[in-house]
């Protein structure tokens, strides 16, 4: 069996969840694993019902220890589910949740963790993945040597899985974790509803850099992003200057993105920024300096001043309706 | 409070990286620095000491050359430094070796960077916590800590923030935004040169078997430069770009 650890919020599956199902299906075929089991930890019956058509079975874990995220309790649940279904591989999202949980699961199971990967392949009976390291300057081929493999899958690396004809059954798995013994747990989550897609998950990203000249001019980036249903990103330089929040920073010490379309405006393309955007399918750059390094990795480049090109660009995109 | 901070010497990825053989980079030509996230971990460890009192020990794992990273940590103000010698080849074996060192040194808090700028695994902190059977908060952007425990914040997708409550002992990994690392002072640098670095040897039986193997390193294919729209005024250039993206590439 392949185990996919899904993510849900307020009863709805997060965008990464159906992508994890695709990754799990691909592993199931490669490893002849005999099915895909989906796991939802925490009290979320509605999400379990939403997940049922995607997998051959859904496992839910509930109880006092599972009311607020605690890596210790969650890792026990994943490890027990993996043993219960005799999982050959466990996939999680390369998300804030998956990055926190996956190493703990791997540690409990003494399993190799292929971290932050796209496509997984079978190589001489072992799972192998390409990992981008050294800020995107080197690709590493890494194989898992253990009987069970854990992997965190990058958002947008796999397409969302379509529902199956017959919905899988939902079963509750009893995981005996004493809530009083959990030493670290989430006390509260402060949400800031930006109304825009998440940077790491978005299919279109619009980013602005120092070429915007001042913080106030970012309304142009936001306007273009909203017309395209895009996430807003930026560079380390503007974050350090206090123009934009760190949550929007792309690149080393920020986020890696993998959208279908990345539009960057007034960004020269420091190596630290470029490392975070190499997963983008198409890159469009607007920069006044024709020699800017960003053009070397761009599919389309416009040589022009950000503040002069953005207003007519917004107008033209608006005309498309 | 005893604080252990994990420090790794890495190749500066802002400089050119060359490969040597099939599985390694050319370290001779690389410019070696303290992993940037580890500098944040050092800074946070020093702030914990300044607030709660105690001792900060910087620990690295690697060859003798890696002691340079410990000298940097000492110059920034950590009290002691130790180098672990062990044959490790993946995050789990590294975590097992470091767990031995943490047990030998004794610690209430271990602070590490969220990942290393070279292999970018982002696993060692959480694996160390699992080996020690301690709790862990990864990717910490804000920390409040006292003698018994504290709270840590981490960013989640969509601009949200998780606030976690923890008791000691704990492993914490530093994310960008946690702090701005201080510079080493000149007296600090002078003092750091004379400090003795403790050696901790961990034998193969404690390191155990690896679960990951990197079988090849490659330079990624260069992304070729595409179509340039130059020598047009801003309005014409914008029109042309939208036309190309809409009609030809069908991306918008």
Overview of this structure, please?
The complex is a heterodimer of chains A (321) and B (252). With 321 residues, chain A is α/β, with parallel strands linked by helices. Chain A folds into two domains: 2-181, HUPs (Rossmann fold); 204-319, TPP-binding domain (Rossmann fold), CATH 3.40.50. Chain A has eight helices and 18 strands. Chain A has helices at 16-31, 45-51, 71-84, 96-109, 218-228, 236-240, 271-274, 306-319, and strands spanning 2-5, 8-9, 12-13, 36-41, 57-61, 89-93, 112-117, 120-123, 126-133, 138-144, 149-153, 169-172, 184-190, 204-208, 231-234, 261-265, 282-287, 300-303. Chain A has a seven-stranded parallel sheet, sandwiched between helices. A five-stranded parallel sheet of chain A has the order 15-14-16-17-18. A three-stranded antiparallel sheet of chain A has the order 8-9-10. In chain A, helix 5 (218-228) runs parallel beside helix 8 (306-319). The longest helix of chain A has 16 residues, at 16-31. The mean pLDDT of chain A is 95. With 252 residues, chain B is of the alpha/beta class. Chain B folds into two domains: 2-207, HUPs (Rossmann fold); 221-252, no CATH class. Chain B is built from seven helices and 15 strands. Chain B has helices spanning 36-52, 67-76, 91-105, 124-132, 186-194, 204-207, 234-248, and strands at 2-6, 9-11, 19-20, 24-25, 32-34, 55-61, 80-85, 109-113, 136-145, 149-156, 160-167, 170-174, 198-201, 212-218, 227-229. In chain B, the strands form three sheets. A nine-stranded mixed sheet of chain B has the order 11-10-9-12-8-1-6-7-13, with helices on both faces. In chain B, strands 2-5 form a two-stranded antiparallel sheet. The radius of gyration of chain B is 22 Å and the shape is globular. The interface between A and B is large, with 95 and 84 residues. Strand 18 of chain A pairs parallel with strand 15 of chain B.
